[in-house]
C-alpha cells in the first residue's frame, strides 16, 4: 500500500551551533552533543560513521528531540519515545505485533509530520487510504484489522495527550473505522470437529492438543505452555497459568494475556481419559516438561492437513476458541460462566464477542412472561 505523507512545514532553526565534526583519519563525520535527561543530569553522546555532514546533523536533531520529547518533534521520533516506555509494560509478543502495525501502517503516512500538527483531516485522509486498499486478489482489509490499526494510532496519540501535554487527540474528531468483532464468526460444530479429528488422530499429540483446544477454549499459547504438573487427572482440571510463544528463534514463556486468564479449567471424563492415554506415552516426563513441545506452526500445519480434503471447512486455530464458546452457548451456559472458563477479564467481553450467537432472548422473555401469566 502506498501512502502520500503531507509535506511538513519549516522547522524552527535551533539557536545553538550543531556540534558536528569531520574525522581527519577516516574522512567521515561524527556528532558530539550534550543533553539533560529526565533526572536533570547532564550527559554527552557521541555517534560516528556518517558519510555526510547533513546525515550527522539529522541524527543529532532527532536524538535531541527524543530526549526532550517536544511535540514539535516528528511523529517518527516520538515513536522512539513511545516504544521505549511501553516495551517494558507489555508482553514481548504484543510489542512485536505493535511494531509491525506502526512500521507498516503508521510511519509511512505520519512519520514526517510533527506530532503537534497532526489534524483530524490528516487522520481522515489516512483512514480513507486504508478503506480503499485492496490486495492483488481484490480483497480489502477486514473490518477487525482496520479497527486494530486505527486503535494503534489512537493509543499513541492518547499517550501524547496524557504524558506530553498534546492538547487533544485528533482521532477523536476524525472518528473510528472498522469493527471490534466480525459480523460472522467461523467455528466448528461438534460433528465437524469429530470429522476433523478422524483425519488427524493418527498423531496422538495432534488429537490430544486439538481436543483440549476444542473442549476447553484455551488459547494456543496457553496450550503450548502446559506442563505435566498443570494437568490434574484425579480432579479433572487444567491449571492455566502461563503462555508460550516462539519469538526470534527463542522459546518465551510469559504470564497469560490478562490476570483473569490465570484460571483452573475443569474437563469432562472423556477428555481426562484422552490426556491420560497421551501422557502415558511421554518418555519419563518431568513435572515441568511441556506436554506439547511444539510451536504454533505445528498445529497450524495440522489444521491444513485436516481440512485439505474438503471434508470440513477451513477455520483458524483461534476459531477453535470461538467453537468452544459456541458449544457452551448451545448447552445453555450463562455469559458469566463462559467468561470465567475462557479467562475473559470482564463478562462484557464475552457478551460483545458472542452476543450474536446467543439465542433470541427477547422472544424467550416474552414466552416466559406468557407462561407465568
Structural class: mainly alpha
Can you write the helix and strand succession as a string?
Answer: EEEHHHHHHHHHEEEEEHHHHHH
CATH superfamily of the largest domain: Intergrase catalytic core
How many individual helices? 15
Helix content: 40-55%
Using only C-alpha atoms, the radius of gyration works out to 27 Å
Which band does the percent of strand residues land in? 5-15%
Quickly name the level 1 CATH class of the largest domain.
Mainly Alpha
Q: Please state the oligomeric state of the protein chains shown.
A: single chain
Stretches with pLDDT under 50, minimum 5 residues: 1-17
Average pLDDT rating: 86
- Number of structural units classed as domains: 2
Q: Which second-level CATH architecture of the largest domain applies? A: Orthogonal Bundle
Main sheet strand line-up:
1-2-3
State the major sheet. 3 strands, antiparallel
Q: Given the C-alpha coordinates, what overall shape results? A: globular
Distance between the termini: 61 Å
- The overall strand count is 8
CATH topology of the largest domain: hpI Integrase, Chain A
Amino acid at each position: 500500500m502506498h501512502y502520500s505523507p503531507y509535506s511538513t512545514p519549516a522547522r524552527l532553526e535551533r539557536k545553538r551551533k550543531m556540534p558536528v565534526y569531520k574525522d581527519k583519519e577516516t574522512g567521515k563525520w561524527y556528532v558530539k552533543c550534550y543533553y539533560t535527561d529526565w533526572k536533570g543530569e547532564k550527559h554527552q553522546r557521541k555517534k560516528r560513521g556518517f558519510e555526510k555532514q547533513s546525515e550527522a546533523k539529522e541524527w543529532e536533531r532527532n536524538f535531541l528531540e527524543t530526549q526532550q520529547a517536544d511535540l514539535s518533534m516528528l511523529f517518527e521520533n516520538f515513536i522512539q519515545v513511545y516504544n521505549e516506555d511501553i516495551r517494558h509494560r507489555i508482553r514481548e509478543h504484543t510489542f512485536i505485533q505493535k511494531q509491525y502495525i506502526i512500521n507498516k501502517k503508521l510511519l509511512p503516512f505520519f512519520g514526517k509530520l510533527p506530532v503537534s500538527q497532526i489534524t483530524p483531516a490528516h487522520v481522515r485522509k489516512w483512514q480513507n487510504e486504508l478503506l480503499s486498499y485492496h490486495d492483488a486478489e481484490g480483497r480489502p482489509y477486514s473490518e477487525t484489522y482496520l479497527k486494530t490499526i486505527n486503535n494503534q494510532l489512537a493509543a499513541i496519540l492518547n499517550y501524547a495527550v496524557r504524558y506530553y501535554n498534546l492538547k487533544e487527540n485528533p482521532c477523536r474528531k476524525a472518528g473510528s473505522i472498522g469493527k471490534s468483532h466480525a459480523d460472522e464468526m467461523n467455528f466448528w460444530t461438534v460433528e465437524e470437529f469429530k470429522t476433523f479429528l478422524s483425519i488427524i488422530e493418527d498423531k496422538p499429540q495432534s488429537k490430544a492438543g486439538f481436543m483440549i483446544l476444542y473442549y476447553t477454549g484455551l488459547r494456543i499459547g496457553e496450550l503450548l505452555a502446559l506442563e505435566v504438573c498443570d494437568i490434574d487427572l484425579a480432579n479433572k482440571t487444567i491449571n492455566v497459568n502461563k503462555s508460550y510463544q516462539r519469538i526470534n528463534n527463542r522459546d518465551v514463556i510469559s504470564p497469560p494475556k490478562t490476570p483473569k486468564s490465570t484460571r483452573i479449567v475443569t474437563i469432562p471424563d472423556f477428555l481426562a481419559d484422552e490426556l491420560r492415554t497421551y501422557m502415558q506415552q511421554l518418555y519419563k516426563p518431568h513435572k515441568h516438561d511441556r506436554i506439547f513441545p511444539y510451536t504454533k506452526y505445528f498445529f497450524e500445519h495440522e489444521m491444513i492437513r485436516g481440512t485439505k480434503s474438503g471434508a470440513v471447512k477451513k477455520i483458524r486455530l483461534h476459531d477453535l476458541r470461538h467453537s468452544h464458546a459456541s458449544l457452551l452457548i448451545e448447552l445453555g451456559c450463562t455469559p458469566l460462566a463462559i467468561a470465567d472458563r475462557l479467562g475473559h477479564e470482564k463478562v462484557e467481553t464475552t457478551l460483545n464477542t458472542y452476543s450474536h450467537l446467543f439465542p433470541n432472548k427477547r422472544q424467550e422473555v416474552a414466552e416466559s412472561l406468557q407462561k407465568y401469566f
